[in-house]
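Q: I'm writing a short explainer about Cache domain-containing protein for a general audience and would like to include a description of its predicted shape. Could you first generate the structure from this sequence?
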Amino acid sequence: MKLLLTATALCCALATGAAFASEPTEKDAIAMVERGVALVKAKGKDEMIKKINAKDPEYVQGSLYIDMRDAKTGIVLAHPINQSIVGKDLTDVPDATGKKYRREIIELAAKSNKGWVDYHYKNPTSGKIEPKTTYIQLVDGVVLEAGIYKK
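A: Of course. Here's the predicted structure. Afterward I'll give you a sentence or two in plain language.
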């Protein structure tokens, strides 16, 4: 009986640890954007758009995914989760709190080439509007973005 309880406790601990380990981190977001930057530099923007639209597992991993917008116009060029916004300029459309975070993304890319932007967005795994922080980087006239939801 003691062995069964110990085994059960161990299984619960491992399952809980695995759940926490699967949550993406800031390092994961940076790494994903850097993989995207390398792809754009090596094969071009069109190849990156194809990978995003195909939901390539290198660029779409649960709630962590990469999307792309034009750095000058703000037009969304690719988004693996919300295809309805592709081709649209949502630069001045605010999040649920009124923040024009897309404008901030474009301005940050122009000023610093890369960095973090905080806002609220619909989490594809929970379906709820949640706080999010997104790492962005400018490459070849486009901004690549990957974010994590903050708990």
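A: For your explainer, you could say: The helical segments are 2-22, 26-43, 45-53, 101-112.
Q: Perfect, that's easy to follow.
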